């Protein structure tokens, strides 16, 4: 996996972190995704943070 495309998504409700990739040519803004947080056992918003 290319390291320059790697990004860190952090949960807004807990400290859970998900690593993902994004296409920097097409997506210029920061990513917000709704995903399942296993620590809370709920779906929450994950926001892009610094690596």
Task: Describe what this molecule looks like in 3D.
By secondary structure, the protein is an all-beta fold. It has a single domain (6-49), classed as Single Sheet (Rubrerythrin, domain 2), CATH 2.20.28. It is 0% helix and 49% strand. It has strands at residues 6-11, 17-21, 32-37, 42-49. It has a four-stranded antiparallel beta sheet with strand order 2-1-4-3, with no helix packed on it. The model has no long low-confidence stretch (mean pLDDT 92).
Question: How would you summarize this macromolecular structure in one to three sentences?
Answer:
The protein is an all-beta fold. The protein has no helices and four strands. A hairpin with a 5-residue loop joins strand 1 and strand 2.
Summary tags:
51 residues; mainly beta; Rubrerythrin, domain 2; four-stranded antiparallel beta sheet; 4 strands; 0% helix
The CATH topology annotation reads as Rubrerythrin, domain 2
Distance between the termini: 15 Å
Radius of gyration equals 11 Å
> Could you estimate the helical fraction of the residues in percent?
under 10%
Q: What is the average of the pLDDT values?
A: 92
Listing every helix as H and every strand as E from the N terminus to the C terminus, the arrangement reads EEEE
Query: Main β-sheet: number of strands, strand sense, barrel status?
Result: 4 strands, antiparallel
CATH superfamily: Ribosomal protein L33
Q: Which percent band covers the strand fraction?
A: over 45%
Number of strands: 4
Number of domains: 1
**What is the CATH first-level class name?**
Mainly Beta
Shape: elongated
* Number of helices, counting only DSSP H or I runs of 4 residues or more: 0
- Low-confidence parts, pLDDT < 50 over ≥5 residues? none
Structural class: mainly beta
Going across the biggest sheet, name each strand in turn: 2-1-4-3
CATH architecture: Single Sheet
């Amino acid at each position: 996996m290319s390291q320059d495309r790697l990004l860190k998504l952090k949960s807004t409700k807990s400290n859970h972190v998900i690593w993902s990739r994004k296409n920097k040519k097409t997506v210029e803004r920061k990513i917000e995704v709704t995903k399942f947080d296993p620590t809370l056992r709920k779906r929450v918003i994950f926001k892009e943070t610094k690596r």
